[in-house]
Amino acid sequence: MADKIMNWMRMIEDRFPGLIAKVREDIEISEKKFETRNGKTGFGESHLWEHTTHVASLAFRLAREENRPPLLPTLAALFHDVGKFAGGNYHEENTIEEEESAETAKRVLSEAGIKPGELAKTLAGIKALYNEKTSKNSIAAIVHDADFLSKFGAMGVAAFFTKATLRGRTIESAMLGYLSKELTYAACLPRNMRTAAGKKLAAQKARDTIGFFRKLLGELRESCGVGLRIRRLRISDPRSRKKQLEILLAASTECRQCGSSWRTAWFIEDGVKCTKLNVEWHCAKCGDSLGTSFCLPEV
Q: Which of 66, 233, 245, 276: disulfide with 271, CB 3.0–4.6 Å?
């Protein structure tokens, strides 16, 4: 199994010796600059590099299952996030990140001796990654699917708790604050795929992710008395009224203060960068309230 996983690294190293180490160095240096600039002195291993290797391995796998040559999709995956911390700044705008990633890819791959035609296709794939108008780009489609798939399944669950720890959250607090978004994105994952291989793997990862958290919530109820359950809500997709989105909410079945039943209300609003779902729970008896909000998944 380990031999199969490492195939993507050997493929790149055979063609471009030292390239992987160079990309890793660029990512780690920029990430460290960002951490230092923001007063974080305990910089350790790179989370972004770990994510990058996961996406590259998935891109390699999806390309082979799609019967496409895996080299260029894997290269695009290797560089897809290299611009996220370019210059020691966190780039939230996709266009800035992609431009930085493409420029770095162009420089590093040119120095590595890539053929002009291969370089052009790789750069086009990186630039088209989040551009719906160019979603038919096969390289972008594979990397897009790999990027989203990396956030779910066993590795996705591990990343969820890593982020919760970095935020200083307990398990219960993470469940209340972020699990509804995680579950909803998992439920919608297959619809967000652009390749047949991606859809197949997404269905399995969605089941694994939701199944794990369902079991975890069961154990939390038994061991800690945390009464959270998964509730399903179907809403009209604001981008296409003929379609519906399945929302999975991790919510308490009763008021935390008096034990009465909650009244649930929800509404949708346009945020700065997304369409946001706001959910609120109110207790008519004692006035206690609870709420969560997150960007709706794009499908």
A: 276
